[in-house]
Amino acid sequence: MHRIRVYQGDITQLAVDAIVNAANSALNGGGGVDGAIHRAAGPQLMEACLTLNGCPTGQVKMTHGFELPARYVLHAVGPIWQGGDHGEADLLASCYRNAMTMAAAEQFQSIAFPAISCGVYRFPPDQAVDIAVRETVKALASNENLEDVVFCCFDEAMAERYRQKLHVPQGGSEGEGSA
Ligand code: ADP
Question: How many Å lie between the centroid of ligand 1 and the Cα of residue 171?
């Protein structure tokens, strides 16, 4: 059965088939979730990323997870918010679509997403949550293998946005939902 859940905490702790990274287009690390993933995965992750020749916005490239509990990292490059009329919504949707396509191709059973573009890239969080949920639900409809989709949020306010969108009872630190 397909499950979508909200988890509040650090994505680097999750033992899933793949965690998604909110990367930059150079794939050369940075702050936020990207920095946390590189610290937890160890230096081999940077070596692997630097062989990939970067990644265009909206696209996704895969590496191993190295020292992470997750087997793989899907490096998704979200758009920088520039007011909304620069294709930001389509580019963010494309990140989720491409990650879900990759998960299907690799027959992953579990995947965890951070709130791509919602940190230093300043994407409006409510709109980002709508896009994230819409695209993952759509992709799940044609993926029988993927059993566990986790929206991993560092902070409570973001987790609550996902819970509301997914109709998960308020206040739980983890839950199931459907949209
Ligand atoms: P972007 O550059 O795409 O905006 P950020 O890393 O700045 O990426 O932020 C994306 C989201 O990831 C933010 O909501 C931020 O709170 C969250 N975040 C930061 N660190 C972690 C972490 N270790 N695990 C899960 N989410 C995190």
Answer: 21
Q: What is the mean pLDDT of residues 157-175?
A: 80
CATH of domain 3-166: 3.40.220.10
State the closest ligand 1 atom to the C-alpha of 122, by its place in the atom list counted from 1.
Answer: 4
Main-chain dihedrals φ then ψ at residue 82, nearest 5 degrees: -130, 30
pTM above 0.85, yes or no: yes
Q: What is the pLDDT of residues 143-162, one digit of tens each?
A: 999 999 999 999 999 999 99
How far is the centre of ligand 1, averaged over its atoms, from the C-alpha of 36 (Å)? 9
CB of 78 within 6 A of ligand 1: the answer is yes
Number of residues written out for the chain = 179
Query: Which of 99, 106, 105 lies closest to 149, judged by CA?
Result: 99
